[in-house]
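S.,

As promised, the 2'-deoxycytidine-5'-monophosphate run. Input:
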Amino acid sequence: MDNKSIIIAIDGFSSCGKSTMAKDLARRIGYIYVDSGAMYRAVTLYCLDNRLINDGVVDTQRLASAMGEIVISFANNPTSGKQETYLNGVCVEQEIRNMRVSNSVSLVSQIDFVREALVAQQRRLGEAKGIVMDGRDIGTAVFPDAELKIFVTASARTRAERRAAEMQAAGENADIDAIERNIAMRDEMDMTRKISPLRKAHDAIELDNSRMTIDEQNAWLLARYEETIARL
Ligand code: DC
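Predicted complex:
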């Protein structure tokens, strides 16, 4: 193996399997994995729990003064071996994935000061390189100099089916049509928001994984990593 540490940015639409492939690669090559979407979800959960979202409107004044109190961290669950998200010291991994949070996260992730705070934290996490981060703006805004950038796409229906299977596996009810509508709404909001809209970085490699198995996409990503390292 080599000792060149790089930054790997994986962006794309929601529920495209970005985190599955990002986690797999990080585990295989011994890199840190960071789910930037979980950070936006955790801020959204904080807003919902503290009644900062009313009738689809975020109380940005109160949120701005609360930002300093919102501490997001990640820790490995020793039993499952999986990484979990913490909000102010409490594990919120399950709660941040539910529809209540999914339906409001686009509102919160449009707010400039939320993005600035989370992007600053994401850059600190990547200071030592050796990191795989997934999200919407990792290759465009967070790490524009990342050595490897991937942009993942898949059809909205395929993505809804995958998310429903995940929810069912976690023992939750899943309405595929409602999930597909939520995905389409988030695609639209992610692509049209003013700050850091979702778009492919000019130097990103595009992957449509609609017809790929998880093993195939993991192998594809590992091959892109090996090519990148060989070029350095
Ligand atoms: O990847 P995800 O579905 O868990 O992301 C949740 C939301 O957070 C998504 O609707 C868009 C937003 N997001 C973002 O704006 N920028 C990121 N880097 C990651 C996620």
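Residues 119 and 142 are 6 Å apart (CA to CA). The chain has a mean pLDDT of 94.

- D.
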